[in-house]
Amino acid sequence: MGRGRGFANVVARSDDGERFQTVAVVHQEAFSAESLERPALEVADDGKWRLYVSCATPGTAHWRVDLIESETPEGLAAGRPRTVLPGGDRMAVKDPVIHHDERGWHLWASCHPLDDPAQTDRMTTEYAISDDGVNWRWRGTALAGRVGYWDARGVRITAVLPDPVTPLAFYDGRATAEENFEERTGLAVGRGGLGGTFAALGDTPVAQSLPPARGLRYLSVVPLPDGSHRLYFEAGRPDGSHELRTLLVHGRTYDRGQAAGMWQRGYGVARPEQCDHTAN
């Protein structure tokens, strides 16, 4: 691209979930950030569009989450950022996943301890709640890595299926620091509703790309009116680059067996080159 890493977030619109048109672009300069990474897009009760953006503090390993708001999606490009998840000297916060319903606002964020500069890739997923989606209250660790497993080094929830009794979550995991940027996807089940902790299911990832680049991460789940779901995820390519891919999964997924079997029902486990399309 010629402009370095994470220079912008793009908001786009699609009629079919595969072909997209750009609606707004927000640039790192507007946030005084060294890089921008995964955002979250929500519509508030007053109808305003909200974009929660992961921002890297220049010259450090620190991350924070800033919010911009607009009456329209197009207006996000001119929005003025304000910090809603500042992190701190000993903690970086990024990659928010947000669910908004009649009970309030729920947020899961990837948090990285900064106590050891050589190990800032370590991560857990922390849970927060809010009455307005702006002022957040941390409620503890939602998901942590498991010693001796493929996700020991760190876990990052990327999507939550918000069943009020038994929610499910897809998450990125890695065993070592060397697997940074090549995380694989796991599945976890909630204990105690949305506000409880999540427990990883199984001893292996539910999805990964083919070698040599096994990474398959940042999976998002979009529910469709007919009960089907469209998945979006970042997949590794043989040349070491990554691309955004999509997979249409028919049938409901609010069942742990069905969710774990998404990949079997759609063209085979962990084979992104067999998925429906590359999203354009």
Task: Write up this protein.
This protein has 280 residues and is mainly beta. The protein has a domain at 1-133: Glycosyl hydrolase domain, family 43 (Tachylectin-2, Chain A, 5 Propeller), CATH 2.115.10.20. It has helices spanning 256-260, 262-265, and strands at residues 8-14, 20-27, 36-43, 49-56, 63-70, 82-85, 91-101, 104-113, 124-130, 136-143, 154-161, 168-174, 184-191, 197-200, 216-223, 229-236, 242-249, 277-278. The strands form five sheets. Strands 3-4-5-6 form a four-stranded antiparallel sheet, with no helix packed on it.
Helix content: under 10%
Q: Looking across the biggest beta sheet, what order are the strands in?
A: 3-4-5-6
Intertermini distance: 16 Å
Largest sheet: 4 strands, antiparallel
Quick structural overview:
The protein has 280 residues and is mainly β. It has 2 helices and 18 strands. It has a domain of 133 residues: Tachylectin-2, Chain A, CATH 2.115.10.20.
